[in-house]
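Would you kindly consider the sequence and fold I have copied below?
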Amino acid sequence: MNRSSCSHHLKVGVLASGLFVFLGATASGFTTAASAFQGVGDSGGNVTTFSADFSSNGSLVSSSGSETYDFGTFPNDDENSVVFSGTSSAQALPQRLRAQASGSVSNIDFDSDYDADNMIGIPDNFVSFAQAEFTETLAYGGTATNYNSRYILQFTGTLTGDAFAFISLRHGSNPEQTWFFNQPGTYNVPLTSETFVHGSSPQEFRLFLSTGFDIFSDSFAPTSTVSGSANFGNTLEVTGIDLRDDFGTLLTGDSVTGSSGSTFNIIQVPEPAAPLLLLLVGFAFLAKRGRVSR
């Protein structure tokens, strides 16, 4: 089966960036994957999901769920309950990723005695995530011996409240380049990668998008309500590659074809836009997250 869903105790792993990802195999050539889930955890970020959907072929996935945690003298009384709800969806296509996630926690209460192993008490961490990625091998049709490649992306969507979006791009064996966004607003911005210098042999290209709502109750006042939405269902798109030879000539007459069969546009990097509502951070942002064991 290419697609699976789960309502209890789904195992997730942690990327080097600290973001969650479903554990799965990878293959050479062209691969896509999409995942969506909601879960709760302890103050160390050890999360157990209660709703999830996953696709190993990038097809549209969606997940939603709501959990209530009672405290105080009168259980099942709304005034003595923490309520968490979330929705998310994701899809991966050649040169295009979609992901949206939202969440809300009402009547927040921090429970220092929460037992994550047995899920007793009120969780400290509430997450709603959506993730999509594709990897493919790029072939270059031209006469140049060496190439200078810069990927041009278009990032479109909105952020509200306590939500974020994370992008990772990798070319060949080079280190990942990342972007992180957490400022509320409307985004319709071009993103340009660094320049990758390589020969004419095929190169692997990977693009990853994660959106999420991820809060810790001890960071907020008791009884408060926290919500957030990261809606990039339309979309993160590869609009083209600025492909040049050693002399700096833009090679518009050459071609770049992915193992998916799609052709990449060869275009010039656009002129710098006005300052963006973005914040770039390193991999340490979510480094405190531990590996989920259930």
